[in-house]
Design brief:
single chain, 4-stranded parallel sheet
């Protein structure tokens, strides 16, 4: 049986898994979305079967696929064509085909795209985290200026972050909305505060940033060793993550959380202050190649699940 790897050519994490599958001499088919137009794909109502013929001339039927790693597929005609351009229309056709393939036979998905999409909700994540046994910072999601100011006055030390994807594209320029410490100046403009709901959250300080990667029942934890900024992605120096231990109760809560969201894989951001561990968010498709390079055997755990 064959593992289908749905990804894109820029994904370094996919390279780690493919290397491990090769080492095990396990059959796999890399389905890079950039290559889709050069592949022959078809579905016929009589057989109700997807057939893919890669550039090497082989034939793969989806019924021969035992498991799928659905890892950040891109768009074959560019990620951000003009909405009214032919490329945008072509991208939509391929996205529709990939969505339909997700309804096909393989029973092992890491993760199923419908589960990924549902798990992206930050509010759902917070509710699931509490139900799984986690402590969370005091949190408000709102665009009501008075409610926001009252929350910030009561909590006193607050950060703000995006409720949905924090990537902003203006023309050819991309910007990322990072977690920001709220100051009095941020709370003055009612028009800005009411423009859209955002996440306002108690700032946990001092704290230790921990990334936990869950693959099935395997739990891998790493701590950021040299972070001073509220959002470690803003550091001016490379952030060093070191493998670390977390209490078994926290590891069990991570497993329960990922399972409750219908996922097999999840990248979880935690904060530790003294002996208390707080949940921040979970990314169903989080990066992990940089953690593999630090010695965590994430690719091996993924191969165990998929192969």
């Amino acid at each position: 049986m064959t593992v289908l790897v749905v990804t894109n050519k820029q994904d370094v994490s996919a390279d780690w898994l493919i290397r491990e599958l090769r080492r095990r001499e396990h059959d796999f088919l890399p389905l890079n979305t950039e290559d889709l137009p050069q592949m022959a794909t078809s579905w016929h109502s009589e057989a109700a079967e997807f057939v893919v013929r890669p550039k090497d001339g082989s034939t793969v039927r989806l019924s021969d696929i035992s498991s799928v790693w659905y890892r950040r597929p891109g768009r074959p005609y560019g990620d951000r064509p003009s909405p009214d351009s032919p490329d945008a229309v072509l991208n939509a056709q391929w996205r529709a085909l990939l969505d339909a393939m997700a309804l096909a036979r393989p029973s092992i998905w890491v993760n199923h795209p419908l589960r990924n999409s549902a798990a992206e909700s930050k509010i759902r994540q917070l509710q699931a985290a509490v139900a799984s046994g986690f402590r969370i910072p005091q949190t408000l999601v709102s665009n009501d200026p008075d409610t926001i100011r009252t929350f910030c006055s009561d909590v006193r030390d607050v950060i703000v972050k995006a409720l949905d994807s924090p990537l902003v594209v203006v023309g050819s320029t991309e910007a990322f909305m990072f977690t920001t410490h709220v100051t009095a100046d941020h709370l003055v403009d009612d028009t800005a505060l009411s423009a859209a709901p955002m996440i306002y959250q108690e700032r946990i300080q001092p704290r230790e940033d921990i990334r936990v990667t869950v693959v099935g029942s395997a739990v891998f934890a790493a701590r950021a060793a040299n972070v001073s900024e509220q959002d470690w992605r803003l550091e001016s120096h490379p952030v060093l993550f070191e493998p670390c231990d977390i209490p078994e109760a926290a590891a069990d809560a991570c497993r329960r959380l990922v399972s409750s969201l219908g996922l097999t894989f999840g990248a979880i951001d935690l904060l530790r202050r003294d002996d208390a561990i707080y949940f921040l968010e979970v990314n169903p498709n989080g990066e992990w190649g940089w953690l593999q390079a630090r010695g965590l055997k994430i690719a091996e755990a993924l191969a165990d699940v998929l192969a």
